[in-house]
Amino acid sequence: MPIRRPVPSCAGSPTRHAARSFFLVCGALAALAPKPLDAQTLRGRVLEQGTDSPIPGALLLLQSPEGEEVASAVSGESGAWVLRAPSAGEWLVRVERIGFAASTAGPFRVAVGADVAVPLEVSSAPLELPALTIEGESGGCGLDPDEGEAVWRLWDEARKALRVAEITEGSIAYLTEVTERQVDPWGTTIGREHTEMKTTAGRSPFRVPSAADLQARGYVRDSASGGLAYYGPDATVLLSDTFQEAHCFHAVAGGDGQVGLAFEPAEAPLRVDIRGTLWLDAESSELRSIDFGYAGLRQRSELGIGPDASGTIIYDRIDDGGWIVREWTIRVPIDSRFYGGRNYKLYQETVGRVTSTRRIEPEDGSPRRAPSVYEHGARRDTTGS
After folding, report:
1. Are residue 180 and residue 244 in the same domain, yes or no?
2. CA angle, 62 as apex, 59 and 63 as ends, to 5°?
3. Which of 167, 171, 256, 241 is nearest to 211 (CA)?
4. Helices marked H in 147-240 — which ranges?
5. Confidence of residue 141 (pLDDT cuts 50, 70, 90)
6. Which of 200, 193, 167, 3 is nearest to 72 (CA)?
């Protein structure tokens, strides 16, 4: 069963032996990247109020006095950040941290070509996520604080993590281990696994088409190889107006110290849509994972007993405070086998794990994104090497 592989954005072979040379090449190219001329910049460090401790992983938003966002950045390991203003004038700097209240500084007057130092100290008083009953709390078919406080609070914290992940991916080189295998309903591997090392730079190894494309053509569709292509949601999709307007949200209680924000199509889908749950740590408010399945997908009941196609995306913080997709799994029923007199589904499972990251600067100063997809096509023999 083929996988459409991401094309490395720097030279290098996608093998373990090439990982070191890949990162060296990417670093060299990043150092030669052109810098914008006559840019107005605001820069500084985010420090904790009262202790002067640096705060990595904070979301910095450059806003006009009317609140319009024009630029964004994420603070690094030392709390350092840089924002480029599109023009001279007065600008506000808003600081958002996962699990903490937001704050806004300014306005700061910036002249043409100026480089302005902005001191930022933020409160360390944590926010608390709402306590949920086992029934959870219903929300509306949009994300509005008037339609449910618990839903809005959960979304606001998830949104911060997704924004940080979206920004982080544009300045990271990834080394990723991708494993393909066939499994039974209990996750036991059938035959041999096939593992390959992949490299990407300036874009997350877990990538999907735009929200508008997914809404128009579906999350499961025919692929060029003649099989089916299965997609999951990434940060940019979840943050889009297109996705939010087409889905309903409600809060759900979870186990292991987690609370969830569930989503599902607002209307019966004309094409295959997606449903799932964003799981947040109840204490830290950090986004931990997203479980998802498909709505409107023809179920493969003829294959026997077992779950339908599904996936999981796991988020994690890297050392310098950035937020990334650390691991993802997509499992699709493809065949069946008799066990104890009953017919059970067999699955093609693809697991991606980011094993190493390196901070780079994108060549054009902005994140680069391209589609990534799990394709289910003709059966592939998994018993070979």
Report:
1. yes
2. 125
3. 241
4. 149-168, 211-217, 235-239
5. low
6. 167
With contact defined as beta carbons under 8 Å apart, do 144 and 153 qualify?
no
Closest CA to 116 of 92, 100, 134, 140: 92
Which helix or strand (DSSP H or E) is residue 327 part of? strand 323-339
Domain assignment of residue 258, given as a range: 3-26+166-376
Q: Are residues 311 and 174 in the same domain?
A: yes
SS3 280: strand
DSSP state for residue 24 in the 8-state scheme: H
Query: Is the model's pLDDT at 50 over the cut of 90?
Result: no
Is position 384 within any domain? Answer: no
For the cut 80, the answer to whether the pLDDT of residue 82 exceeds it is yes
Q: How far apart are CA 183 and CA 332, in angstroms?
A: 10
pLDDT over 90 percentage in the chain = 46
Kindly state whether residues 115 and 178 are assigned to the same domain: no
Q: What is the mean pLDDT of residues 154-176?
A: 91
- Residue entry with tokens 């219903």: 138
pTM of the model: 0.80
Picking from 147, 150, 91, the residue whose alpha carbon sits closest to that of residue 116 is: 91
